[in-house]
Specification:
Layout lengths: L18 E5 L4 H12 L3 E6 L2 H11 L2 E4 L5 H15 L4 E4 L14 H29 L2 E6 L12 H21 L4 E8 L21 H13 L4 E4 L14 H11 L10 H13 L1
Length: 282
């Protein structure tokens, strides 16, 4: 059982010797979180669709890494079954795998739209259900779903990404309400845009600078340990929530002045196409 020291309810949790599973763990936020979790004494298992990448990441960290296709019920179930077989159980699942298509909505292919929702939303639902069934049965566990500030503050060029991440936020908060009385907690993580492959080729603005994966990892781990139900990273991003109630004409003015209306519509075509080729191929 996860050790409880005091109480979202206000409980604090020790991660030492706990088994933590991370999807999309071969790079970016997933890998940074894995490194910090190991420093905390957790036993980490990485899952990633890129078998070579996850194998190298696991070897470098000295942990386990298995191939995982989060869009497949069979692959996800087999992945968690393997963790159960090797470790006896897992205490925390971090649904981190994600992609970020950017650009004009009318230029997205049907296959890219489908893949966006399969990975960014349905995979979170899939992983949460598979984990929750195990956790509810024993009355203990934690699910961490990585969404995005984009799910709260949608911007031009992020139509399908924002829609998927908004779905993750709503799903996670509703699920937390369902499962918390059964001993299972659901944490919703909403990071600002992060310096990973997701922003390759994009032009960021001074008012919305990208953050480091290590900063996101630190907040994820602290939020798990302190049993929080949601976290926006960095805290200053909370100020952007005023955007949700800003009148349209002011959004247009601010968007043009500060670049919000173009940062995800205009980008380095070569760098962006390489990123999209990788995430649609794998």
């Amino acid at each position: 059982m996860v050790s409880v020291k005091r109480g979202r309810t206000g409980h604090a949790i020790t991660l030492r010797d706990k088994v933590v599973v991370i999807t999309g763990g071969g790079r970016g936020i997933g890998l940074a979180t894995a490194e910090l979790l190991q420093e905390r004494g957790a036993r980490v298992v990485l899952g990633d669709i890129d078998e070579e990448v996850v194998g190298k990441a696991a070897a470098n960290l000295g942990c386990e890494g298995y191939p995982l296709d989060v869009t497949s019920d069979e692959s996800f179930a087999a992945f968690l079954d393997r963790v159960d077989k090797e470790f006896g159980r897992f205490d925390v699942l971090i649904n981190n795998a994600g992609i970020m298509p950017t650009g004009p909505f009318l230029e997205f292919s049907d296959s890219l739209i489908k893949r966006n929702f399969e990975i960014d939303l349905l995979a979170v639902v899939r992983g949460s259900r598979l984990a929750a069934r195990r956790m509810v049965e024993r009355g203990d566990g934690q699910i961490v779903n990585v969404a995005s500030v984009a799910g709260l503050v949608p911007l031009p060029g992020l139509s399908i990404y924002s829609a998927a991440k908004a779905g993750v936020i709503a799903f996670s908060e509703a699920l937390d309400g369902e499962l918390s009385m059964q001993g299972v907690r659901v944490l919703t993580v909403m990071p600002n845009f992060t310096k990973t492959g997701l922003i390759d080729g994009l032009q960021t603005t001074a008012l919305m600078p990208p953050i480091e994966p290590d900063d996101v990892a630190r907040q994820i781990v602290q939020s798990i340990e302190t049993n929080r139900d949601r976290v926006v990273i960095p805290k200053q991003s909370m100020a952007t929530l005023g955007w949700m109630v800003t009148p349209r004409f002011l959004k247009n003015i601010y968007g043009r002045r500060f670049g919000f209306d173009s940062m995800f519509m205009a980008y380095d075509q070569d760098k962006r196409s390489k990123y999209l080729e990788r995430v649609t191929r794998s």
